[in-house]
Each structure stands twice: as C-alpha cells, then as structure tokens.
Amino acid sequence: MTFFYNDNKVVFPMSLDLPKIFGIHLFLSGVACFGFGAFHVTGLYGPGIWVSDPYGLTGKVQPVNPSWGVEGFDPFVPGGIASHHIAAGTLGILAGLFQRFIQAKSSNR
Fold first, then answer.
1. How many helices and strands, by DSSP H and E, does the chain display?
2. What is the mean pLDDT of residues 17-28?
3. Per-residue pLDDT tens over the stretch 51-62
C-alpha cells in the first residue's frame, strides 16, 4: 500500500495520492464514529454517557438505547446521540470505501 504515485506530467515526480489518503481517513473516522455510538454510548462495551434530568440537577453515567424514530431529534432524549453516531459512522464507512476503491480510480493515474 503506497500513498505516492509517479506522474511524469508534474514537476515533482513523487506526489501524495490525496484522494487515496482522503478515502482512508474518511473510512477510519467512520469506524471511530460508529464504534463510539454502537459500543461506548450504548454501554455494550463501555460505560455509556452522562444522562441527567432536563434541569441538570441530577444525573449519572448510564448506557442508552438508540432512538431511531422522530423522538431521536429531541435534544432531551439521549438515545438520539447513539443513533446519530451509528448512522453517521455507517455513512462515513460507506463513503470512505466508495472514495477509496471507486472514486479514487476514476482519475488518470
């Protein structure tokens, strides 16, 4: 696996392959986002997140279940944090794979 490519048309013969680096970065950030939501926030492998009452008077660290419906958009429902990270991580993984294996090969290299 190399991050460089040879191109005789440019002044510098060795250049960074930025679309490949971007695809790898997007994939790894998607894995981190998905892992945080699916494992840490839900309490599957981790403590969960800080959940308090609407006034912020009492609270504790506890696992939360993802809320996939409309209630997940309510800022007072902690399940929206888990579902957002799982969905955004999945999208980031798919976009990173697309960028790495499909989009990056479409240029003239």
1. 2, 4
2. 90
3. 988 788 898 999
Identify the residue whose tokens are 């990173």: 96
- Closest by CA to 101, choosing from 23, 3, 4, is 23
3 versus 23: the higher-pLDDT residue is 23
8 versus 38: the higher-pLDDT residue is 38
One-letter amino acid for residue 51 of the chain: V
Contact 92/106 with Cβ under 8 angstroms?
no
Q: What is the per-residue pLDDT across 63-77, written as a single tens digit (0 to 9) for each?
A: 999 999 999 998 888
Nearest to 51 by CA among 38, 37, 36, 61: 61
Q: Fill in the DSSP letter of residue 37.
A: I
CA 80 remoteness from chain centre: 15
CA nearest to 86, candidates 23, 39, 27: 39
Instruction: Put residue 95 in one of left, alpha, beta given phi > 0 → left and psi -120 to 50 → alpha.
Output: alpha
